[in-house]
Amino acid sequence: MEFQLITPSRPGYGKTDLDSLQTPQRSADLIKALLDFLGVGQVVVYGISAGGPTAIALAAKYPNRIRKLILASAVTKKWLDKNEKTYKTAQILFHPGIERFTWSMVRFFSKVFPKVIAKSFYPQFSKYPVHKLKKGDIHELISAFEHYNSGEGFLNDIDQILPDNIIANVKCPTLIIHSENDNSVSIEHAQHARKMIENSTLEIFQNEWGHLFWIGADSKEPISKIIKFACAK
Fold first, then answer.
1. Could you report the per-residue pLDDT of 90-123, keeping only the tens digit for each?
2. Least buried of 85, 97, 136, 141, by fewest C-beta within 10 Å?
3. What range does the domain containing 14 cover?
4. Catalytic positions
């Protein structure tokens, strides 16, 4: 079986300007226009982390174009409170004026002290006790940092609010994958999606890396379930 993978950058990331596209609904409109331009019909939508609201809005607004929806470690409601320390820290570190410097420093120190950087970032992703991290897992995390830039996108993400009436309009088969150890996006987001999307299945894991369920030896099961769901007729 052959697949075509389309990975568009959402508004604020990459070379996609934010402009007036701040909401998940407007982002969904943009992706739908891209599918039209490419001549692509129905697709399986895979929404990861902060990409969850856009994926949900796309499935809700354009049901004839979305065959299935997968929500992995996904945000499905209001994410961070403006009074939280995490929110305030993000406003500083990922401000568009300095986010390039932030990620440049992360990449530099990742090359010099990969174990130290991996261990310091680990608690941001997982509630699982910090322990001796495997060399392969460290390499996979550090490799991911090579591609990270947040532009204006991340600060826009933490301010997005997805109305319940939109998520309730998702009718396509939906697979929700989440970890109880996720320390970036709480499992309440997965439970909310399961409650609001009638035709949905929730798979909860106890994986070591929490939010990053695709890293580690215990990543095989969730990845296998996603592939099986996406390929099933």
1. 888 788 888 888 888 988 889 999 999 999 999 9
2. 97
3. 1-233
4. 49
